[in-house]
Amino acid sequence: MLHFKNLVLLLLLAGAPFSLAAQDCFGYVLSEEGARATYAMQDHKGKPNGEMTWTVEDITATDEGWLITLGMSFKDKKGETLDAPVASQRILCTGSDVRMDIDVGALAEAFADNPEVEITMEGDKMVLPNELKENMTLPDAQMTTIVKMSGMTLVNATVRLTDRTVLGKEQVTTPAGTFDCFKITQTTETKAGLAGTRRTATVSWVAKGIGMVKSEDYDHRGRLTSKSELIELVR
Predict the structure, then answer these.
(1) Whole-model pTM?
(2) Which residues contact 84 (CB under 8 A, 6 or more apart)?
(3) pLDDT tens, 188-229?
């Protein structure tokens, strides 16, 4: 499962593409066109489990604020890049917070050879205020993904994010540098048909102008299952 975050601002040009940067975006996300952030992923034993790179592909002004589109590429633990698109993320900067949406276009492209496959995603946007404070409670969010083929439902999964809390400030050092971050915890509940319900906990560290710097995932017993950290930042 892919996880996603972050951004900010007011409209100046109605709907026109902005090719340089969303200069008034002060949220927790990359906000310069062409900027990219690469993360190294590890399993619970600290063994490499691949790399993912988010790249800012487009910044457009809308009636609601700046709409930032990011694309993700992935390398497996052998260093081989996947040919198929992995994910696309849309982030809206409203001036007071950043709101994340998921674009199913890349996922649909992966099934382009089978026109009978239909993929829909609906639910809440994940909101992250531009100004975080210690002990702040963040809004819950929920998203449902449905995959159908020839009218038959293949996947019906719902993800709920709850107990989202800002614990406080921490300075985090990774191979990409040292960053002033806010530490955030959340509970993720996943319901997927016969697989039942699965609950996990995530601890993440986010920095302004970047988004996620480091994250750790834990199972329902509090055992570390995976982690990732920023290893390269290009702006």
Answers:
(1) 0.81
(2) 109, 110
(3) 998 987 778 999 999 999 999 999 999 999 999 999 999 999
Quote the CA–CA distance of 171 and 50 in Å, as a whole number: 25
DSSP 3-state of 106: helix
Environment class of residue 200 by beta-carbon count within 10 Å: exposed (0-12), middle (13-18) or buried (19+)? Answer: middle
**How many independent structural domains does the chain possess?**
1
Q: Is the pLDDT of residue 3 over 70?
A: no
Residue 93 falls inside a structural domain: yes
Nearest residue to 213 (alpha-carbon basis) of 202, 226, 229, 224 = 229
Q: Given CA atoms 10, 13, 17, 19 in this order, what sign does their dihedral have?
A: negative
- The CATH number covering residue 154 comes to 2.40.360.20
